[in-house]
Amino acid sequence: MILVTGATGFLGAELAKELLLRGNNLRCTKRASSTLPEILLPYSAQIEWVEADLMDLFALENALEGITQVYNCAAWVSLKAADKEPMILTNVKGTANLVDLCVERNIRMVHTSSVAAVGEAKPGEQITENHHLDPTTEEDGYAISKLESEMEVWRGIAEGLDAVIVNPSIIIGTSAGIEGSGQLFETIRKGLKYYSGGIMGFVDVQDVAKCMILLMESNITAERFIINAENRAYQQIFNEIATCLGVEPPKKLARPWMLEVAWRGASIWGKVTGSDPSIDKTSARAASVSRNFDNSKIKQAVNFEFKPLSDSIREICESYRSGVQV
Q1: Which residue range forms the structural domain that includes residue 153?
Q2: Reduced DSSP (H G I as helix, E B as strand, rest coil) percent helix, strand, coil of the chain, to 5
């Protein structure tokens, strides 16, 4: 049997759906307070849901009973400064708990990390799996948590764990709704006046799920893979989304000093309201940085071709026009 952790999240739900469509027996973890994702409701009778937090070792032990493969998609994501240290502790300790049990029970794992945990390349070069984040200079709590979680997986591999790590770029898809990357589409739909000057990688959520399954079903172990369809300038992708949604594309460049003002203002507003800031210092500064990711390793390893990003954008825009995120 297969276990998917974090199956109520964007990627985890899409992965669970793909596994079910392939006829797999599936167990999924959720918190007691979690709402089941809409895309999994038609398959509720085919999923064995268990309440288990990765920090709860006893619940995790029960969830892993009879499991031979684990897809780890669970993670705490927050932009709040107050959440930085507890988020790092939770993500890293939760991964360590899962790794220890998988080593003990000889369970194969595909662990979901992020390109946030991959380092920078020299100017003019693409970022590959051989680059590593420098934790001594990184301020982004999420990136640090992902890097240190990866290190727990590598520690497990040294102890005999059969595992692969995936590092997706920005994941998009219709089932995101207006959360996460879906906020980008919603913001542009409402009218965005500024674009940022950087470049970033994007990938469809279905492609991430398919790559993870192909890796799980392969004999590949002790490797990490960047999962990225295309690298796009923010201006280009903002314009394409706006055109697809039938709204005015952003015309003005948000210069670094403007983004600096924006994140400071968002931070103050977040403290006043107690909500997550719409932009933080790390994401504001990253918006002006060009990051080009090399996807050749995953394409060669499992003979995979990514869905064109324009197709994904069109599908998402069509779901907005129909008023339904599926």
Answers
A1: 2-177+200-229+294-306
A2: 50, 15, 35
Give the pLDDT confidence score for residue 142 in this predicted structure: 82
**Residue 230 near residue 294 (C-beta atoms within 8 A):** no
CB 297 within 8 A of CB 286: no
- Give the closest residue to 202 by CA, choosing from 168, 225, 240, 174: 168
Paired strand residues for 290: 199
pLDDT at residue 262, as a whole number: 45
Whether 259 maps to a domain, the answer reads: no
Residue 146 structure tokens: 């992902």
Q: List pLDDT tens digits, range 231-260.
A: 999 889 989 999 998 899 888 776 553 444
Residues 6+ apart with CB under 8 A from 126: 292, 293, 294
| CATH code assigned at 151 | 3.40.50.720
Single-letter amino acid code for the residue at 255: R
Q: Which of 19-28, 194-203, 220-229 shows the lowest per-residue confidence on average (mean pLDDT)?
A: 194-203
| Number of domains present in the structure of the chain | 1
pLDDT digits (tens, 9 = 90+) for 258-313: 444 343 444 544 554 565 655 554 554 555 577 899 999 999 999 999 999 999 99
Contact 75, 6 (CB under 8 A): yes
Please name the residues in contact with 122: beta carbons below 8 A apart, sequence gap of 6 or more.
none
Q: How far apart are CA 215 and CA 168, in angstroms?
A: 14
- Residues 266 and 259: their CA atoms lie apart, in Å, by 10
Bridge partners, residue 165, by sequence: 111, 224
Q: pLDDT by residue (tens digit) across 122-178?
A: 888 899 999 988 887 777 778 888 999 999 999 999 999 999 999 999 999 998 877
* Strand (E) or helix (H) holding 315: helix 309-322
